[in-house]
Write a structure and sequence with these properties.
It catalyses: 4-(phosphooxy)-L-threonine + 2-oxoglutarate = (R)-3-hydroxy-2-oxo-4-phosphooxybutanoate + L-glutamate; O-phospho-L-serine + 2-oxoglutarate = 3-phosphooxypyruvate + L-glutamate. Pathway: Amino-acid biosynthesis; L-serine biosynthesis; L-serine from 3-phospho-D-glycerate: step 2/3. The strands form four sheets. This protein has a seven-stranded mixed β-sheet. It has a three-stranded antiparallel β-sheet with strand order 11-12-14. Strands 1-13 form a two-stranded parallel sheet. Helix 7 packs parallel to helix 9 (345-362). Strand 6 and strand 7 (154-155) form a beta hairpin. The protein has nine helices and 14 strands. It is of the alpha/beta class and 363 residues long. It has helices at 13-22, 41-57, 72-84, 100-109, 224-229, 239-254, 257-277, 308-320, 345-362; strands at 2-3, 64-69, 92-95, 114-117, 143-146, 148-149, 154-155, 167-170, 187-191, 202-207, 283-284, 296-301, 323-324, 335-338. The structure holds pyridoxal-5'-phosphate. Pyridoxal-5'-phosphate binds at residues 7, 72-74, 101, 146, 150, 170, 172-173, 191.
């Protein structure tokens, strides 16, 4: 099966094979990570190794801390304001809302402070409003955006200029798919279940000076100070998910690091976008060219609004070709191909070939 699911997504088969091999017996301990004490030296080693590999892969500067938390990226929609809003004298933060996930993050943050959407509300999520039109507040605690909108397929191919105001970015669906200058960010959050492992663990990378400003109401499990002080081990961590993330990080390292992943992601997305662009409108991608995601590619079949019958037929064809996960999100419709790190160029080529032959049959 070729897995184009938007999440929880494919993990490379070699990583899964290693996890399978170690499931009952990790490093000759006679038991597996699922049964291991999270206070044991072996587990602490798993956490530390994952942190070291991540630091190396993303070239994370020394003044940043890495923690592995529960609660998903959605938990971080609360954790971010709870930990950072106090940085602003009047509890305000700026949000750039370019899709479903940043909209949800802004809505959650409104529970805790004054949230300013820096541009007029978008009627549809198909573009990024020009940066020079954003109304940024120089006294905001932070500027928040989602680097890759998984549902809508809007990806930032630049890091916004926010002056001295720290940037918080949700990279759940594109972390480790491209090199990132971490020093430009205050906080990076990412659920693991797309590019770096399985559901259950969320990665937080945070600049040290932003730690320790949490509101008194901040739950302990979301408290960046407590969690960084305790090396993510304040309470029972999502131990198996952290272990699997560690294996994925090692796999990325062994296969050429983030630069190689970035090249692969560009090649894969190019294969699909070029079929769309050369299809004389048979396939249609509604997104502005400059913000098209390399990870989640939504498109319609049979014209801009999509032809429902053709789209159902297209999905049937992909099913016959053992491809899964291509149905678009219910709020967007049509088709969505998710090309996370573990999807290969060859698998993507098979989808591109199928699209071409489907067009020949039905255009
Ligand atoms: N942010 C982005 C970009 C996502 O794609 C998702 C989930 O798909 C989330 C946040 C929410 O993540 P979770 O389900 O881990 O809370």
């Amino acid at each position: 099966v070729i897995n184009f699911n938007p999440g929880p997504a494919k993990v490379d088969p070699t990583v899964m094979a290693q996890a399978q091999k170690e499931l009952l017996n990790y490093r000759n301990l006679g038991f597996g990570v699922l049964e291991m004490s999270h206070r044991s030296a072996e587990f602490i080693d798993i956490v530390d190794k994952a942190k070291t590999n991540l630091k190396e892969l993303l070239n994370i500067p020394d003044n940043y801390k890495i923690i592995f938390l529960q609660g998903g990226a959605t938990g971080q929609f609360s954790a971010v304001p709870l930990n950072l809003l106090n940085l602003s004298p009047d509890c305000t933060a700026d949000y750039v809302v370019t899709g479903t996930w940043s909209a949800k993050a802004a809505k959650e943050a409104e529970k805790y402070g004054k949230i300013n959407i820096v541009h007029p509300k978008l009627k549809k999520y198909t573009s990024i409003p020009a940066e020079d039109s954003w109304q940024l507040n120089p006294n905001a605690a932070y500027v928040y955006y989602c680097d890759n909108e998984t549902v809508n397929g809007v990806e930032f191919h630049f890091v916004p200029d926010t002056g001295n105001v720290p940037i918080v970015a949700d990279m759940s669906s594109n972390i480790l798919s491209k090199p990132v200058d971490v020093s430009k960010f205050g906080v990076i959050i990412a659920g693991a279940q797309k590019n770096i492992g399985c559901a259950g663990v969320t990665l937080v990378i945070i600049r040290e000076d932003l730690i320790g400003h949490q509101m008194k109401e901040c739950p302990a499990v979301l408290d960046y100070k407590l969690q960084t002080d305790m090396n993510s081990l304040y309470n029972t961590p999502p131990s198996y998910s952290i272990y699997l993330t560690g294996l994925v990080l090692q796999w990325i390292k062994n296969t050429g690091g983030v630069t190689a992943m970035s090249r692969k992601c560009a090649a894969k997305s190019q294969l699909i976008y070029s079929v769309i662009n050369n299809s004389n409108g048979f396939y249609h991608c509604v997104l502005d060219e400059d913000c098209r995601s390399r990870m989640n590619l939504p498109f319609r079949v049979g014209g801009p609004g999509g032809d429902q019958e053709l789209e159902a037929l297209f999905l049937e064809r992909t099913k016959q070709a053992n491809m899964v996960g291509l149905k678009g999100h219910r709020s967007v419709g049509g088709i969505r191909a998710s090309l996370y790190n573990a999807v290969t160029v060859e698998e993507t080529q098979q989808l591109a070939d199928l699209m071409l032959s489907f067009q020949q049959e039905h255009a």
